[in-house]
Amino acid sequence: MEGLVVVVVFLVLVAVTISLGVRIVPQGYKHVVQRLGKYHATLGPGLNIIIPYIDTVSYKVTTKDIVLDIPSQEVITKDNAVIVANAVAYINIVSPEKAVYGIEDYRIAIRTLVQTSLRSIVGEMDLDDALSSRDMIKAKLKEAISDDIADWGITLKTVEIQDINPSPTMQKAMEEQAAAERGRRATVTRAEGEKSAAILQADGRLEASRRDAQAQVVLAEASQRAITKVTEAIQTNELPVMYLLGEKYIDAVKNVSGAPNAKIVLLPADIPAAVRGLMGHLNK
Q1: 23-42: per-residue pLDDT in tens?
Q2: With a threshold of 0.70, does the pTM exceed it?
């Protein structure tokens, strides 16, 4: 009975020893082995043999790409504007032993490094440049942190700027500024329209005045020629003159009688005498 117990214990010990000495690493992972507390080897995917009780698998590290979400943070630009930016980094561990022994927590370290570098890069840019230059920020950010994380056995595949927007306070100020600018443009446009309209009206009045003056000159010249021809025609004959003045006189009386406020129109009994009186007055 005691012999059976010894056999069973031996078999159990053998099974435990084999299980401790044989390590199967799945695809996409690497195992870091320590021998007596010191780094010894890195096991790749597949079947691996280690020394039981002496070698131990201390860390299991993925070799697949890791996505690190960089939390949002407020960043001050060169022109003292506040923007909110966040990013996402894609990394790959190429040397697991450096990643576990070179840094306490590479995830926290990389997040902090990206945030610090992002503040530094955006701090050298104006607000407009920061909002419209994502590719440039991405390139500078990748260049800034690639060398640092390489010491930890980690490769930065890429880093993307997810959001970069003005802070709520800055966004409100920008909206007010944009509204004020639109109001200023509307005022300028309205003033230019009124100016153009006033110039056109003044040009119209000037042209009308010029044409009126030309018309008056033409009428005066016509009257002068008419008077000259009438004078030449009548010479010393009084009858045509009396006829013309009488005709004008009668027309004037008709106009007076047709006026809305005309009540009584008096006609002289002797129209020829009235006309001769006008001629005498003109001759004086």
Answers
A1: 899 999 999 999 988 999 99
A2: no
Note the pLDDT tens digit of each residue in 128-168.
Answer: 888 888 889 999 999 989 988 999 999 999 999 888 888 77
Cα torsion at 173, 176, 181, 184 (round to 10°)? Answer: -140
- Sign of the Cα torsion 183, 188, 191, 196 reads negative
Q: Scan for tokens 């997040």, then name that residue.
A: 111
DSSP-derived secondary structure for 177-200:
HHHHHHHHHHHHHHHHHHHHHHHH
Strands 38-43 and 46-49, bridge-based pairing: unpaired
Q: Which of 91, 87, 85 has the alpha carbon at shortest distance from 70?
A: 87
> For 54-87, what is each residue's pLDDT tens digit?
988 999 999 999 999 999 898 888 888 888 889 9
Report the distance separating Cα 271 and Cα 129, nearest Å. 97
pLDDT of residue 248: 65
Q: Is 152 exposed, middle or buried (0-12, 13-18, 19+ CB in 10 A)?
A: buried
CA pair distance 68, 159, nearest whole angstrom: 9
Report, in angstroms and rounded to the nearest whole number, the Rg of the chain calculated over CA atoms: 54
Query: Using CA atoms, how far apart are residues 264 and 257, in angstroms rounded to an integer?
Result: 8
Alpha helix segments (H runs only) across the chain:
2-21, 96-101, 106-122, 127-132, 134-150, 168-234, 238-257, 271-283
